[in-house]
Design brief:
This protein has a domain of 87 residues: Sandwich (Jelly Rolls). The chain has 1 helix and 9 strands; from the N terminus they run αβββββββββ. With 137 residues, the chain is mainly beta. The strands form 3 sheets. Strands 1-8-3-6 form a 4-stranded antiparallel beta sheet, with no helix packed on it. It has a 3-stranded antiparallel beta sheet with strand order 5-4-7, with no helix packed on it. A two-stranded antiparallel sheet has the order 2-9. It is globular. Helices cover 13% and strands 37% of the residues. The N and C termini lie far apart (78 Å). Strand 4 and strand 5 form a beta hairpin.
Length: 137
């Protein structure tokens, strides 16, 4: 009898680990890249004192951000709305709700709301502590 109880317990434990049926979290890769959206490869990062910043940014309908650049790695996730990003040499990309953008590094650009509702972004920055998140032109 003891053997049967052990076997049943063993079967339950193995089944839980294999199927993750009780404690399963869903995950979806939103972005995995080695370059910015204009295909500029990330260079080897030399960060002595890393600092991570996460911002929530809301861009109202028709609003346009100033021309600016980033001197650190950052990725934007469009939580709501439609965002168009335009470089100073007129390259552009349009993103919609649920899409991610590996931002340009060291290249001037601006974003504008080209949709019919406010754009809500979550932006993740990684760089040397004290580095400005953006620099206006």
């Amino acid at each position: 009898m003891n053997y049967i109880v052990r076997f049943v317990l063993f079967f339950i434990v193995v089944n839980l680990f294999v199927t993750n049926s009780i404690y399963s979290a869903e995950k979806e890769v939103l972005l995995k890249t080695t370059s910015t959206w204009d295909n500029a490869e990330y260079k080897k990062l030399k960060i002595k004192k890393p600092e991570v910043t996460v911002l929530k940014i809301i861009i109202n309908v028709g609003e346009q951000l100033p021309m600016h650049k980033h001197d650190l790695v950052n990725v934007a996730y469009v939580k709501k709305g439609t965002l168009t990003v335009i470089t100073d040499d007129n390259k552009e990309i349009t993103l919609h709700e649920g899409e991610s953008l590996p931002e340009l590094i060291g290249k001037y650009h601006y974003g504008k709301n080209t949709g019919k509702e406010p754009v809500e972004l979550v932006v993740f920055y990684l760089g040397e502590k004290g580095t400005p998140l953006s620099v206006n032109k």
